From TrEMBL:
Record localization: Membrane
Chief location category: membrane
Protein name (database record): Transporter
Lineage, broadest ranks: Bacteria, Bacillati, Bacillota, Bacilli, Bacillales
Topology relative to the membrane: Multi-pass membrane protein
Family label: Belongs to the sodium:neurotransmitter symporter (SNF) (TC 2.A.22) family.
Length: 447
């Protein structure tokens, strides 16, 4: 059995973990969720939930992973042997499978756009063309399945390289490039005529838009964006050395996530209002609006191609964390089995994702709870699976694990943890579980 793989640096870990969060969670999902759920009030709730609920759970997952030095399933079994807590890890793996199954579909959409951009397909297109282009892609069964498979093959190739040579190496140059380019794109979007209406939509909360469903969706977005509740960060933290300052890393990743989500909103919504679109376009928002933004720029075609490449990078960094979570559970520390289990897990994800890929075309007539198969997979993972997993993790750390054990683990590499430990422990033990349960009950109209 080979030695447990580890990150080579703190920066590599933070960029990889942030990449898991900053991928489609911030760039694709946040704008369309905010656009369909009130804009400013959704963003305000998202920020509050990230700081008070999601970030504390992120640190709890870091604790579990580094303390156990094991995959998502084995970690809970190791820290609480002969109990049912191991089911929390199984839940995380199942939800990771479902998320990556529809996530890979979006990765395929990006590859479709990239292929068209590289051959000059978008040259001389007008604003009204972009809705039709997006619809023609997602309704084509051969293309969506082919591109979904290609995306999974790329993801699998990186995961087969392991932590240092695969995930860390890719993330350390993908994420900074995306961040710089997105800042420039936000600046351009903000200079469009009428852009301030979009800024107001994003940053000015409208209390009349507040509903129980908005609260639940904002909570789900804070979990989805930080990749918590599915033990992905348990797996990533299992590769951490004892010298890592986990509270500082959790705070950095949470802050980056809020910043990138804000940045994505400042790219999308000013352009939405400036170009005469509506913000409630749904999952295709980024694929309809951004091409129109680039159409307004000098050398827009070249810049759009560069953006798609970087967006693909961001999507892949999120996919890395999800597939690694699944593969690590299969491997159980046997690094020599990584290639075999990557192939098995990646193939399983692709097969599970086929209905989501076809849900806008061949299977468009099939609905579950009035949602397409794709939207239903997104809903049950973000708003049921992840919050439930987060609730179990908060209860596990807050009530099952002795308080002294938690403190002693967090103080390693974090000598100043005593300053914030009481506040964090209070949140994880009382506020986080209560808030999640209350939101669950309210959203299902039980209270």
């Amino acid at each position: 059995m080979k030695k447990q793989d580890q990150w080579t640096s703190k920066t590599g870990f933070i960029l990889a973990a942030a990449g898991s969060a900053i991928g489609l969670g911030a760039i694709w999902k946040f704008p369309y969720m905010a656009g369909t759920n009130g804009g400013g009030i959704f963003f305000l709730l998202f920020v509050l939930f990230t700081i008070l609920i999601a970030a504390p759970i992120l640190l709890a997952e870091f604790f579990i992973g580094r303390k156990a030095q094991s995959n998502a399933i084995s970690a809970f079994k190791k820290l609480a042997p002969h109990t049912l807590w191991g089911t929390t890890g199984y839940l995380g793996i199942i939800v990771s499978l479902i998320i990556l199954s529809f996530y890979s579909v979006i990765g395929g959409w990006i590859l479709s756009y990239l292929a068209r951009s590289l051959n000059g397909y978008f040259i001389n297109k007008v604003q009204s063309d972009y809705v039709h282009i997006f619809d023609s892609i997602i309704e084509n069964p051969v293309e969506v399945l082919g591109m979904q498979l290609l995306f999974m093959l790329i993801t699998m190739a990186i995961i087969q390289g392991g932590i240092q040579k695969g995930i860390e190496r890719a993330s350390t140059w993908m994420m900074p490039a995306l961040l710089v380019f997105f800042v420039l794109l936000a600046f351009r979007s903000l200079t469009l005529p009428g852009a301030m209406e979009g800024v107001s939509f994003l940053l000015k909360p409208d209390i009349s838009s507040l509903t129980g469903q908005t609260v639940l969706l904002a909570l789900g977005q804070s979990f989805f964006a930080l990749s918590i509740g599915i033990s992905v960060m348990v797996t990533y933290a299992s590769y951490l050395p004892e010298t890592e300052n986990m509270p500082k890393s959790a705070a950095t990743i949470s802050a980056l996530n809020i910043f990138i989500s804000l940045l994505a909103g400042l790219v999308i919504f000013p352009a939405v209002f400036a170009l005469g679109y509506t913000p409630d376009q749904g999952p295709g928002l980024i694929f309809v609006i951004l091409p129109a933004v680039f159409h307004e720029l000098v050398f827009g075609g070249i810049l759009f191609t560069v953006f798609l490449i970087l967006l693909l990078f961001a999507t892949l960094t999120s996919a890395f964390s999800l597939l690694e979570n699944i593969v690590a559970a299969f491997m159980k520390g046997r690094q020599d089995k990584r290639r075999r289990y990557t192939l098995i897990a990646g193939s399983l994800v692709f097969v599970i994702g086929i209905p989501s890929a076809l849900s806008f075309g061949f299977l468009s007539d099939i609905h579950i709870m009035e949602k397409s198969i794709f939207d239903f997979a997104d809903y049950i993972t973000s708003n049921i699976g992840m919050p439930l997993g987060a609730l179990l993790i908060s209860l596990f750390v807050g009530y099952k694990i002795p308080k002294d054990l938690v403190f002693n683990e967090l103080v390693q590499g974090s000598p100043k943890i005593a300053f914030v430990f009481k506040g964090w422990y209070f949140l994880i033990r009382y506020i986080v579980p209560f808030a999640i349960i209350l939101i669950f009950l309210q959203s299902f109209e039980i209270i």
